[in-house]
Amino acid sequence: QYPRLPFADVGAALAELPRLTAEAARRACATFPAATGLGCDHVAPRALARLSDVGLASLCSWLAACERLGSWPAELWVVLIVLIPKTDGDGRRPIGLFPTPVRVWWRIRLEVSQLWESANAAPRLYGGRGMGAQRAAWVCAFQAESAALLQQDHAAVLLDLVKAFER
Asked: Strand 92-97 to strand 80-85: parallel, antiparallel, or no bridges (unpaired)?
């Protein structure tokens, strides 16, 4: 069974989303570190916070139009891949630097997406809060032990993508 989706169609989903506001955009822009990487547009997300309320409201109207269309303009499809040092000091890992409007929109909609994710969490999908590879391994081991005690067949497949980019 697939996770329950809260909306029957995109129109209904958009109707339930909070309106994008200049205030929300300004708060989202302020969450980026001052030295955050720049995407292909070379615009720092924090710089957008300096726009007037009218300017940010115009940006929000444009972002809302992109939401209604369900896609970004082709000019925003450029994602720069940058290699940054790994936290364990073992080499570098690739990240994608998206254009600033996309990144700001993500930050504005972060709370909504987190609420949706928690409302639609499924015990069989690992990768969310408290659902990492180690937990998946423990759950699988418990299920295998239970099946053995009950003399039942058991099969499992685990795929862990840690260090996936090096392999």
From this structure: antiparallel
> DSSP string spanning 112-125?
HHHHHHHHT--TT-
User: Which DSSP state fits 127?
Assistant: S
The pair of structure tokens assigned to 2 is: 């697939």
Report pTM.
Answer: 0.69
CA-angle at 128, arms to 107 and 26, nearest 5°: 10
Residue 159 tokens read as 């795929």
Instruction: State the Cα–Cα distance between residues 19 and 133, nearest whole angstrom.
Output: 36
Cβ atoms of 17 and 67 within 8 Å: the answer is yes
- The span from the CA of 43 to the CA of 123, in Å, is 40
How does pLDDT run across 112-134, given as a tens digit for each residue?
888 877 777 776 666 666 777 67
Closest CA to 51 of 39, 40, 66, 62: 62
Q: To 5 degrees, how large is the angle CA 82–CA 87–CA 92?
A: 35
